[in-house]
Structure formats: structure tokens, C-alpha cells
Amino acid sequence: LRFDESGGWMLEQCTAANPGRHLAIFGQWGDTLADSRWLAAPLITHRIGDGLLSFTPDMSREEAQKFVTGLNNTAKKIQTESK
Fold first, then answer.
1. Phi, psi for residue 22 in degrees, rounded to 5
2. Dihedral over Cα of 44, 23, 17, 14: its sign
3. Contacts of 9 (CB under 8 A, 6+ apart)
4. Per-residue confidence of the chain (83 residues) as pLDDT tens digits?
5. According to the model, what pLDDT value does residue 51 have?
């Protein structure tokens, strides 16, 4: 995931303040609770200052494609609304 400037700052603060802990990642890729769950909990080993978060999600390829499409659609919506 590539965060924008404010998201990158939050990621940096979170990872700098919590080394040795886990970052819980929850995802939803549909309209029902059945289409959501905890995806990963990577260990924070260092401060992430570049706004890039890489992790291996516990999901199928089909779920991942739906999830990424939803993230991209949400990002576009937020960009449109902020103009």
C-alpha cells in the first residue's frame, strides 16, 4: 500500500512508536461482513518513513483483486471530493 502524505506520517508515527509489536490489518471487499476479515498482522521491525507498507495478506487471488479494486475506487472518490 502506498499512503498519501498524511497517511504516510501516521504510518511513520505508528511504526516508530511500536517496534516489536504487530500492525493489525483488516480488510473489507464487499458489502457484507462475510466479505471482510483480518488479513495480516506483520511485525513492526523498524520505522516506515517512506509511506509504503508491504505485507502478505491471508486471502485468495479473487479476494485480493476485489480488495485492490475497492481501495482504488475509494481513493479516487476521496480525491474527487477533496477538489
1. -105, 145
2. positive
3. none
4. 899 899 999 999 999 999 999 999 998 887 888 888 999 999 999 999 999 999 999 999 998 898 889 888 888 988 888 76
5. 96
pLDDT for the residue numbered 39: 94
Query: What 3-state DSSP class applies to 38?
Result: strand
For the record, the C-alpha cell of 26 comes out as 483488516
Look up residue 46 and give its three cell numbers.
Answer: 523498524
- Distance between CA atoms of 21 and 77, rounded to whole angstroms? 32
59, 39 Cβ separation under 8 angstroms: yes
Counting Cα atoms < 13 Å in the Cβ hemisphere of 79 gives 7
- d(C-alpha 25, C-alpha 56), whole Å: 10
